[in-house]
Amino acid sequence: MMLPHRLRNDFPLAVITLIGGMAVFVLGPFVIYRFATGAMVHGALNLLVVLAILGAMSYAWRTGNCRWTGVFLSIMSVASATVTAMLPGAVGLHWFYAALMASYLLMGVGEASVLIIAAVTALVAHGGAFNSATQMWTFVVATALVSLFAYVFRWRADAQHRQLELLATLDPLTGCSNRRAMDRELLIAVNTNARTRAPFGLAMLDLDHFKDVNDRYGHEAGDQVLVDLAELLRSHSRQEDRLFRFGGEEFVLLLPGVDEASLFTVCDKLREVITQSLSHAEQKVTLSIGAAALRTGEDWQSWLVRADKALYAAKEAGRNRVCVAPPPAHGPSSSTR
Fold first, then answer.
1. Which one, 75, 82, 178, 299, has least CB within 10 Å?
2. Has 249 been annotated as catalytic?
3. H/E element, 288
């Protein structure tokens, strides 16, 4: 089902939904109790908080924008707990710790820390939330300890998330980015071109007769050739270029700033480097390259298909060469240089 799937795969949305549920089933009864006992100001404030949380949760579900929804909910939760604590006869301090934890889950650790420090400073300056100086300083120390634990937990969770994201987008053999990362980067390139008309080139590279290497020397030798190829491509590419392992012995190289006129030259230099430097058991290993310059208004899938067709043309023409997909005026066939 769509709902469980989104909650499993979107942690901020899951936290926002949890807060929405707490607003209904935890804060809701307090709203009723406040109004029933005549605490109209407290009841109205609690009701406003519940409605704001539900509205923010609905916005997050509709738009998928959990970043600013989380910031809004954090500020509102901490502010409402702070204001409630300042009201005569209120027990807002009991809600402050829940608002604190929610802030560290929904905001960056730096933002949450600034928010909590500002709220605690306001409570201490007002003084009305505390019965004595001892209670005030006990609250300050307890808040500092809870914030420290929340800070460490969130920092560690963020570090693990970044590590998992990195592992999910890397090819374990060559260390290149994988197809998942490639799809995202090509989409970014297409969107950048649509906004700025910045040129992008795309090259698909395929080792010639790679199956012979595996059959003759074994898959371990073939893996080493792939590792060596990836290292050569990285060392002879620019820092802004992006290398992806497309699958098997195929790689894709994204070339920002490379237009139709210079695409062949750039790719052919890479081909020459590989021809001169890549070998196994004293046998040269070559590669074929199919390239395509991004057309304005083109989606990344058709761009990749044109590069793939150019690669096929390079293979058909005898391998160890570069074929560039022609501009629209030249028709659908690839050109060989």
1. 299
2. yes
3. strand 287-293
Answer yes or no: is 10 within a domain: yes
Residues 236 and 138 in one domain: no
Where among 105, 136, 168 does a domain terminate?
Answer: 168
pTM of the model: 0.61
Structure tokens at 181: 């990362």
Q: Domain of 241: which CATH number?
A: 3.30.70.270
Q: What is the structure's pLDDT at 328? A: 59
Amino acid occupying residue 233: L
Radius of gyration from C-alpha coordinates of the chain:
29
Measured CA to CA in angstroms, residue 281 lies from 215, 217, 227, 233, 274 at distances of 14, 9, 15, 20, 15
Question: What would the DSSP string read from start to end of 189-258?
Answer: HHHHHHHH---EEEEEEEETTHHHHHHHH-HHHHHHHHHHHHHHHHHTS-TT-EEEEEETTEEEEEEET-
Q: pLDDT under 50 in the chain at which residues?
A: 1, 330-337
Containing domain of residue 87, as a range? Answer: 2-168
The Cα 18–Cα 27 span in angstroms is 13
Number of domains in the chain: 2
**Residue 55 within any structural domain of the chain:** yes
Given this model, what pLDDT does residue 315 score?
95
Residue 193 and residue 86 share a domain: no
Q: Which stretch of DSSP H or E encloses residue 156?
A: helix 133-168
Model pLDDT for residues 196-239, shown as the tens digit of each residue = 999 999 999 999 999 888 888 898 999 999 999 999 999 999 99
Q: Which is catalytic among the residues 220, 249, 250, 260?
A: 249
Residues 119 and 149 in one domain: yes
